[in-house]
Give the backbone structure.
Amino acid sequence: MTTNRQSGLTIIELLLVIAIVSIIGLMSASFYSRFLNQNTVENTVNQLVGSFRKAQIYSMMGKQNNTWGVRYTESPKKITLYLSENSGFDETFSVNNNITISGFTDISFARITGLPSAAPTITITGGNNNKIITINSQGVVSKTN
């Protein structure tokens, strides 16, 4: 006597697999979105800190016999490392539209001494991520969480 068995998936098994895959997909999308926000904030912080340090070094070296600074503009959102009175040496970096930078618009560094024109606390925000950059009166740039 032979029995004829058919193999395959039942509709319940198929619905279960679809539900599990959908749940995993939805969870991973939220994790990925949060990761992108954190990464964008961290990249902006690193770009800004690097620009401050570069401007200070250029000013201390007397590069192009002038002072250097960093400017942030809101529309369009960009960070500019600039040479006073000569825009031919500007380095401009765009900032993601989801990022908010507050606490400064323009800081220049004195020639030879490298002292900043201001000692701000700068906050970079993106989603639920906040990072803080401080520049003290001696020109030391530091970042904190």
Observations:
- The longest helix spans residues 11-61.
- The chain has one helix and eight strands.
- The radius of gyration is 26 Å.
- The mean pLDDT is 91.
